[in-house]
Each structure stands twice: as C-alpha cells, then as structure tokens.
Design goal:
The protein is an alpha/beta fold and 136 residues long. It is built from five helices and four strands; from the N terminus they run βαβαβαβαα. The chain has a single domain, classed as 3-Layer(aba) Sandwich (Rossmann fold), CATH 3.40.50.720. The chain has a four-stranded parallel β-sheet with strand order 3-2-1-4, covered by helices on one side. α1 links the parallel β1 and β2. Bound molecules: NADP nicotinamide-adenine-dinucleotide phosphate.
Amino acid sequence: MSNVLITGSKRGIGLEFARQYVQTGWQVFATCRRPAEASDLQELAGRHASLSVHRLDITVPEDIRAIAWELEDTPLDVLINNAGVYLEKGTPALGGLRYEDWLRTFEINTLGAVRMTEALLENVARHDIAVTEFSD
Ligand SMILES: NC(=O)c1ccc[n+]([C@@H]2O[C@H](COP(=O)([O-])OP(=O)(O)OC[C@H]3O[C@@H](n4cnc5c(N)ncnc54)[C@H](OP(=O)(O)O)[C@@H]3O)[C@@H](O)[C@H]2O)c1
C-alpha cells in the first residue's frame, strides 16, 4: 500500500487531500496541530483504518522530531507540505507592513516546510511510488 504524509490536514486542501488519498486506497498519515479539535478528520479516520491522525505543529522542532521518530523506518511515497498561512492578507503596502505576520509566515510556510522535508528526507528516499487517479 502506498502512503502519504500530509501536514495541515484539519481543514481545507489538506483535509481534501487526506480524503482523496484514503479513498484511493493509500495509507494516510494525516497531521494537524490539535487532533482533538479536528472533527472532520477524526470522522474520516473513524471510517478508514488506513488513516491515522498525528499531532504536529511544523514550527515546533520537538513535534517534527516526534513524527520522524514515529515513522522511523517507514518509507514515505509522498510528503505533502500543505500546512501554511496567509497572514498578510489585506496588509497595506509600505507604511503599514506587519512585520510579525511576515516573520510568522516565513516561519511556517518556508522554514516549516523545509524542516519537515529535512526530517523525513530518508523516509522519502526509500519510497516506492505508485500512480494514483483522483476523482473530481
Ligand atoms: N486556498 C488557496 O487558494 C491557496 C492558494 C495558494 C496557496 N495555498 C496554500 O495551500 C495550503 C492549503 O490552503 P488552504 O486553503 O487549505 O488553507 P487553510 O484552510 O487555511 O488550512 C491551512 C492548514 O494549515 C495548518 N497550519 C497552519 N499553521 C500551521 C503550523 N504551524 N503547523 C501545522 N499546521 C499549520 C492549519 O492548521 P489549523 O487548522 O490548526 O489552523 C490548517 O489546517 C496552504 O499552505 C496555503 O497557503 C492556498
């Protein structure tokens, strides 16, 4: 069975990725910041034994180390660095820049994705890729 790890699976595109992959027969490691609040994802996990939910904030190195340790020798076919934010939405241009939002965005969208990739690089390198067709 091919497998995929998806960050930010509680809602939006990440949740839909989780849904489509698991329905296509993949094993899904669905991560989110607060599993207890991820009701749609938990409901999906309840219907599919091949979907597991894992707590992970991609800005927290201990969380990343924990998921890497959990997956230790598991080859990973696909890593989807989906988790991200759009904090600058509606931010005025020069004169009104919110530097905290800018830094937080960089921490999540850039450093977080790179940290995840670095941590799971060996798992992905051991992959055995399969072809998948998604529904509309
Ligand atoms: N939708 C678009 O039109 C669009 C366009 C361009 C790029 N994107 C990118 O595509 C991705 C998914 O978009 P979306 O529309 O599905 O976004 P969304 O509904 O806002 O979902 C983003 C997900 O990322 C998670 N997340 C945020 N910070 C995190 C962190 N530090 N650690 C772990 N997870 C974190 C959120 O967790 P919580 O649920 O806990 O908040 C949420 O589940 C994002 O990276 C977004 O920037 C989307």
